[in-house]
Structures are given as C-alpha cells and as structure tokens.
C-alpha cells in the first residue's frame, strides 16, 4: 500500500497575501506533494496549510515551507489572537494510509533536527514525537508563547529539544513545534457575545483539562474528553468564540462538542450561533453529524451523502460566518482524483453513448444501471414512507430499508463503469504482442483471466440487484400505498437487470477455454434468476392488491 502523510503547518501570518502565497509556493514546489487547503485568518494573523503526499516529499515540502516562513516572517513584529511561538508555529505530520503514527513521529523528530541544523530554528517535539513526556501536550511547549522564549532557552529544563542561543535567527524565527498526531478537528464556536471572559468560562466548562479548583488544589475537569479550548474575541467578526481542538474525534465527535458547548453556553445566558471549521475535516466527522441530527428529527438516514452533509452544515451552522463548501473542506474530496466515467455523464449523454457504434458501454453496463434504478426506486418508497404523515412511529423501520438501498445504489453505480472496464481489459489483452511463443502464452493467459473477470462482474451486478428485490417487496407490502407502483417498477427493473446481466455472464463464460471456473458462475446465475422471478411475482401481487381496483 502506498504510504500517505498529511501535514498541517500553521504559519504566523494571516494578513499579507504575498507572504502566504510565497510559503505555499515553496511547499508546492516539491514534486509528489498536493496542497489541499490554505486557510488564512486575519484576526488570528495565522494561516493553516494542508498538504499530502508520500513521507519523503512531505518532509521536504515542510522543510521548504519553514525556510520560506523564516525568511519572510519576523516574530519580533508579530501580533494576533492565537497563541504562537514561531514563524512556523506548529508542524504536525499525520498518518493517512500505509504508515503508523510511530513512524510519523520518527519523521517529525528528523524534520525538527534538520530545521535546527540547517536553518537555525529552535524546535520542540510534541505529541507522539515528544522527547520528554510532558511535551506531548503542545500547550507545555508553547507556554508563555514567543515572549517567554529568551527565558526558556536559558533554562536547561525548558529549552527546545533542538536549540542554540537566543541569537538573531532565533529572535526572528521564534521556536517551531514539530510533532506527529492523529487527525485533529480545529473548530471555533461562535457566541452571541463580545465577552472574552464569558467565552473563556464556557471553554473551561467543556475542555478536558477544565479549570483550576477555586480551593487552589488541583483542577476541575471539563465535560469533553480529548479536547482543548480557549475563549477569545475576534475583531474580524465582532464576536467572541470558543476555539477548540478536538484531538480525539472518537471520544468527542464534532456534533457532540457542538451540542455540549451550546448547552454550557445556554447555562451562562449565551447562545452558539454557529461553528467555524479551521482547515480540513475527515468526511466521516460530517457524516456522523448529519446522521445524528437526522435521527434527532426522526428522519430517514437513507439519503445521499451530499444530503447528509447538507444536514450537518445547516444543523451546526457551519456557514454562519462564511460559505461552507464540503468539496473544499473535506479531505477525502480534495484527495480524490477528478471524477470521470459513465456515471459522471448526464442521462442523455450515457444513453447516446450507448447508442453509438462503440461496443462499450453495452448490455452489462445498462444492466447495472437498471439495477441501480431498481434499488433507487425501492429506496425512494422507503424515504417517502418514513416521512408519511401519521407514520412517525415507524420512521426507523423505513430508514433502515433506505440505508440498505443507498448502499446498493452506490454498489451498482460502481458496477456500471466496472463492466465497461472489464470489456476494455479484454480488448487490451488482444492488443498484446504475439511474435514469440512466450508472448503468445502470456497473451492467451491474460485473455483468459480478463474474460473470467468479465463474467464475474455481471454476476456481481446480479447479486447486488437481487438484494434490492426484498426491499421492493417489503415496500410494496408495507410502504406508502400511494407509491406502490414505484415498488412494482423497482421489481420489474430489477429482474430485467438480473436477466440482462445473466446474458453477459453466459457469453463471457462461453469464451473461456477452461470451463471449470465458468460452471459455478453459470449455476449461481441461474439460481439468482429463479429467486428473482419469485420475488418479482410476490412484489407485483402486493402492488396489484393496492391498485388493482
């Protein structure tokens, strides 16, 4: 598996676009690195940049970004609302795929060492990369902020892990905090107040560390595990905020943080008017939030991903201060390749492409599309039933059907392109060289493997579509009677899809020289057709009971 690392440096400049652009350009100059997001804040005078790539180029890009920040930012002149200690203030490496947190910690320590040795920047190592246990907490490393650095550098116990004297280089660059951590969600909760003191009180209520005990002995913990928070006033917006880092999104999901901050704010006579996500967010964070609020409304969860995200955005007012576009804020969307293929076409374009003289898309892709329509119709009836007046107590029953239907829609949409890809794979094999005996053998083997795969793909279409038929039957029997005909059309489309896909299984199986692997496919295809016809008959009977009169 390819190793992927995300890096989210925070630079102490959020106002001068030319400086921000120069730092981003230095990062982007490294081949193999993709810049996903640049999020400047004027009031905080801080910019969060997010980029990803394989470990070596990411570390090189992080180094170049730090070098450019050192060149262009003078910490002696810096002021902003956010705590900071250096031009490159924090520089975390985050495992995305194929690499562990421990491996990222090793990379972070190496990066910190290089930044000091080659650039002269004092560096603390924090979180998973910490060289001292207490420095796992970023707040310990950044205690006193930039202004405390002369005293800290002179103190053997508090000086940075990689450090020289308080020379001109250190004075200008400050100290960077280089670390490794898991995904962190940075979010600001907007309050209907201008009082920093009141915002801070709410932050103390919720953050895991809590507040100092008035007796002077120990701390009173807050209500949210895996969170850090402070209160501040933002001139740019004219409001106070609770600024929070959620360091453990499993212990405290974003929507739970929103609800709890809202509760604690209300207890102090305040109201949360919305939230502002800083940087990027994993998709599951917003999907979990959307489903949470749908459940609170007793609405079906079996809707599209796009609609679930919209519910999350509106429920937490993520667009309170500025527009919130998931395509620009969700890390998976930004990392994805530009979508292409048959499913990206309009319905008219797909139909006309099918009608052209090209052999693909053909019957296999059309069968998968009919299966997708069958699953979509069953899902539609479930969603309409979940929302039917007087049926509120049954919303969960229909929501469960709709969720299952959405999964089948997604699977069958994928199979539309997969079937055409399987056909093209066979055509590519026929183009292989055949000048020598070895080349002929390799070509024959590749054709046989590709043909077997081309028989397996429509069988997958049959299996997925078969799962849609019980949903159509259930909706014909128990769903909204006004939509009974839609359940019937779902059953008709499903059987057409299954029978069409079976023809593709048979024609590809017939082309195999080795019949042994083909026979189980043919036997399963015949069994699916028989089962599908029985389910279709039951569904149409139920439909007729509703509309026969």
Describe what is shown at a glance:
The protein has 549 residues and is of the alpha+beta class.
Protein architecture, described:
The protein has 549 residues and is α+β, with helices and mostly antiparallel strands. Helices cover 53% and strands 14% of the residues. It has 18 helices and 13 strands. Strands 1, 2, 3, 4, 5, 6 and 7 form a 7-stranded mixed beta sheet that branches. It has a 4-stranded antiparallel beta sheet with strand order 11-12-8-13. A two-stranded antiparallel sheet has the order 9-10. Helix 7 packs across helix 8. The model has no long low-confidence stretch (mean pLDDT 94).
The first-to-last residue Cα distance is 60 Å
What Rg is obtained from the alpha carbons, in whole angstroms?
29 Å
Count of extended strands: 13
Structural class: alpha+beta
User: Main β-sheet, in a few words?
Assistant: 7 strands, mixed
Low-pLDDT regions: none
Shape: globular
In DSSP terms (H or I, runs of 4 or more residues), the helix count works out at: 18
Helix content: 40-55%
Mean of the pLDDT scores?
A: 94
Proportion of β residues? 5-15%
Write the layout of secondary structure elements.
Elements: E1 4-7, E2 10-11, H1 17-28, E3 33-41, E4 46-53, H2 55-72, E5 88-97, H3 101-119, E6 123-127, H4 138-141, H5 149-153, H6 168-173, E7 176-180, E8 185-191, H7 196-206, E9 211-212, E10 219-220, E11 227-234, E12 239-246, H8 254-267, E13 272-278, H9 283-296, H10 305-315, H11 326-329, H12 331-335, H13 347-355, H14 363-386, H15 395-430, H16 437-478, H17 484-510, H18 518-547
Parallel strand pairs: 5-7, 6-7
Antiparallel strand pairs: 1-4, 1-5, 2-4, 2-5, 3-4, 8-12, 8-13, 9-10, 11-12
Helix pairs in contact: 1-2, 2-3, 7-8, 9-10, 14-15, 14-16, 14-17, 15-16, 16-17, 16-18, 17-18
